[in-house]
Structures are given as structure tokens and as C-alpha cells.
Amino acid sequence: MKDNWWERLKTNKMAIAGGLIVLFMFIISIFAPMITPYKPNIIDRYNILSPPDTRHLFGTDDLGRDVFSRMLYGARVSLSVGFVAVGLSTAIGVIFGAIAGYYGGIVDRIIMRFVDIMLAIPTFFLILAVIAFLEPGIRNIMIVIGLTSWMGVARLIRAEFISLRNREFVLASKSTGASDLMIIVRHLLPNSMSPVIVSAVLGIAGAVLLESALSFLGLGVQPPTPSWGNILTIGKDNIEIAWWLSVFPGVAILITVLGYNLFGEGLRDVFDPRIWERND
Amino acid sequence: MKGIVAYLFSKGFELIITFIGITIISFLIIHLAPGKPTDMLTELNPKITPETRIKLEQYYGLDKPLYMQYKMWLKRVIHLDFGNSFSSDHRLVWDKIKEKLPATISINVLSLLLILIISIPIGITSATHQYSLYDKLMTVIVFVGFAMPAFWLALLLMMFFGIYLNILPISGLKSINYDELQTVEKVIDIGKHLLLPVFISAFGGIAGISRYMRSSMLEVIRQDYITTAVAKGLKSSRVIYIHGLRNALLPVVTILGLSVPGLIGGSVIFEQVFGIPGMGQLFYMAVMTRDYPLIMGILTIGAVLTIAGNMLADIGYAIVDPRVRKA
Prior knowledge:
By secondary structure, chain A is mainly alpha-helical. Chain A has helices at residues 2-11, 13-30, 32-35, 67-103, 105-120, 123-134, 138-147, 151-164, 168-175, 180-191, 193-216, 228-237, 243-271, 273-279. Chain A has a single domain (8-30, 58-279), classed as MetI-like (MetI-like fold, Orthogonal Bundle), CATH 1.10.3720.10. Helix content of chain A is 75%, strand content 0%. Chain A starts with a helix and ends with a helix. Chain B has 2 domains: 2-78, no CATH class; 94-326, MetI-like (MetI-like fold), CATH 1.10.3720. Chain B is mostly helical. Helix content of chain B is 78%, strand content 0%. Chain B is built from 14 helices and no strands. The model of chain B has no long low-confidence stretch (mean pLDDT 82). Classes of the chains: A mainly alpha, B mainly alpha.
């Protein structure tokens, strides 16, 4: 089984393209200090807003800081926010979805109603309101994105559990006296992982976008910590004179998000045997 | 007809529960956050006496248990009384929101229309020409569209149309000389200002909805009744647009309803980028200054707009699908 999907992954162009982009982003954020000679926060008063050249690959910003270096360090911020936020939202979604799907009945109805309510709130409003009271910053951004984006996972896990909970292997395990927690952790979760992995990968893309938008509005990662979003804020303020500040960080966001989306969609095809049969 | 009334009635009940749920969540967030919501008003104002502070806390019922505070607040909200803004003008929150609503609502309605006009034909033609060059091109465009941060696209378009070509204004709703213009010129002026914001706000929706429309149409084309319709010799355009479209639209209507909160939330971004004096910008200001009554008021109105959008989607669903009315 395992070899089977590894084989399929290797032949899936979308998954490979996306995976390579993701891998590339990881490498540059890990090795950021070795790639760039400049520190991201060093101010250079004599090189303010200088256009891209061989010294400063992506130009400098309004304080003379090297944009290329800031973007490399920004990749770190972006990726860590994406992973932590999605880790949190997946954990919450799995817990709620598992309880709703396994127990059903009134518990299920209450949880799913709560999910519907959360989905009906304009998420961006909710996030801004929370941040207004918590102080913006990397940690709070992660928490807030995590707390407001778990609903999809909950629905997925619930649907999987409902279709699995009356299958023979689950009933057999129950008849041998296994506890609910045991059945959920040992039997139901491992068999419901593939849609969760797909939605987590796509979720990272969403979190990266959200973080950049919040940082752009000045409510996310706070300067001087570099993030792609807050470089774009400076880009907007200098839009008439410094195009490089508005172009490069946006391209970085676009490519990263595209990478996760391609990887996620590719994985979906890999995990879904029906599509495989159709293409065969 | 009776079916539709019963259907809307049960939907209406659901919506009321949703509204109460949303307000409870927003209420809790603001009240569980560290510090008192009145701190912002009292700490910044050295002239405030302890007596006025207590009076203020009593007005917001901060001395009472949480559920009592919520009940008091809900009772006022039903009468559109959100209290006074904490900002220096101390105006009524509802008055502040009321004057910003038209801009935000009209941009959102326009962008919903734009989404429908563009993405439904794209979805249909991609489905009927599956795996063609056109379909593949559209798929690529949609993927890029999904990954494109709306605010960045806004910056790029501002740079291109506003600065490089210099044919579109890059901020605000009206030109400085707006009051001197003729009626026709006024319409054109506002139209020019709205062009980019409406496009930006519709952009994500266009990518998403055309994708849904494509897969929904593909699903429908494979159904037996379509094969039957083709077999009995109907023109393929008639089969697609009369028999197919109606069924394919169903899931799209639902998705459209679900995308309303995203649209409304997105207004913060494009209103901030384009400097449009709407509810999104008001909310941004409120968040920046921690204007507690204003934040609460806008969250509530945002929820009401969302619910209204969902309600419209449900009505649309009932119109398109007779089965819903009977169920």
C-alpha cells in the first residue's frame, strides 16, 4: 500500500512541482544567513530606496535595508506561521470532528451547529477584533489563525468517522472491550488521515496568505521583524518611486502559496484511488 | 408555494440561532480579552474622575455577571443601540456605521455580480471543452488566482493603471473636483474609482466559483438525463444551457452564499488599500484605536450582512431546485 502511493506520488506532476517549491522555500529559510551577506535589520542611511543592482539584488527599502535579505528572513516567518497555525487548527478540527463523528446524536448536532456559526462570521473581522485586544505579533497571529480555521478539518474528520464507525474492524475492536479513545486513536484516525493531510497542506497556503495580509495591514508581524507582508506595506507607501518593494515580496508569496496548493492538490489525486482508476 | 414558506421558516429559525451564536462569540472575545473594554477610554483621558469611570462601567454593565451583560447588550442591539464611539467625536456607533454601509454594500454587490458574469461562462465552457487547450489555460489561471494575494494584485494594478498608464485614480471614491461635475460626469467619476476595487474584491471569487462551476457541470454532463436529452436529438447548446445549467448551478449557489463572509471580511483589505471610506476602513480604524463599542457594532452588522447573504442564497436555492421546496 505504502509503495503504491509513493509510486503514484512520483508520477504526479502537480505534487512534484509543488513539493519542489515547498522544499526550495525550506532550504532558503534554513540557510538564510549563509545565502545573504547582509543582516536583515542593518540600516544604511546612504543607500535608501536604491533600485536593484548587483550589490542589492532586490534593492533597498526606506531605511536602506537589503530587501533580498529581509525576504529570506521573511520566508522563515511565513513558513513558521503557516506550520504552527495549521498544526493548531488541525488539532482542534480533529478533536471536534472525532467527537462529533464518533458519538453522533446531540453532541454531533451541537458541535456541527458551532462549526456552522464559526463559518458564518466574517473571519477577517473576527481575526482583526481578536488581534486588537491581544497585541499583534508572530505568536498571536499563529494562535488566531489556528483558532479561526479548524472548521473544514472538523467536517472532514466527522464525515470519515461516520463512514467508518460501523465497519467490521471497528465493531470487532469494540466487542473485545477496547475503549472509545483506543478505537478512535488506533483504528479511526489512521484510516482518516489522507483528507486531513491534504487539507492541512492547503491550509498552510491559506495561513501564509492570511499572515501576509495581516502584516501588510500592520496587524501581523511587527517591524523590524521582516515579513513579506510588512515589506509590501513599505512598498505601498513608496509605490510611486520604488516598484521593487511592491513586486518581489508579492512574487514570493504567490510562488509559495502556489507551491503548497499544487502539492496539496497533487496529494489529493495521489490519495484518491477513484481518480487513479479513471486516468488508468 | 406552501412548501417554500415552510422551508424558509425553518431556515429563518436556523438563522436566528446562528445570529445569537455569532454575537455570543464576538461578545466573549472582547470580554475575555485582558483589561476592561473601558480602559481605553478612561486611561487616555486624565480628566476622567473615578465617579465617571464607575458610571461608565455601570453603563456597560461591567459590574454584572457575563450572561447579564450579554442580555443587556443584545436588548440594546435589537434597537440598533450600540452606544457611543470611544473616539474623540463620541458619535453614536450606529450613525458611524450607517454612513459607511452604502459604499461597502454596493462594492460587494457589484463584485458578486462580476463573479457570476465572469465565472459561470468560464466554468461551463471549461467543462464542455474538458482537457482542451482552453480548459488547461483556465486551470492554470485559476491556480495562479488562488495563490495571488488580493492586496498585492491591488498594488500591481495601482502601479500599472494609476501610475504607469495614469488612466485610473488610485484612491478614494470621488475626485477632488467631484462637486463641480455634471451628473453624467459624476457617474463616470465614481465608476472609474470603483473599477479596481470591485475587480480586486471579486478576483478570488472568480477563480473559486469558475472552478466549482466547472466540476459541477462535469458532474451533470455525465448524468443519464443529459445522455437521454442528447439521444433524443436536442441541440447540444440547448442540452447544456437548459437541462444542464440549472442543475449545475445548485452547488454553486451554496458556495456563493458561503463566500459572503469572505467578501465582507475582504472589504477591510481593499478599502484600506484604495482608501475607500467604507465599513472595512471604519473597522480597521476601530481596531487600531481599540474603539470597543464600534468594533462590537461592526462585528454584529457584518454578521447580519452575512446572514442576509446566506438567506438570499437559500432563497435562490429554493427557486432553482423544486426538490428543496417539497422536502
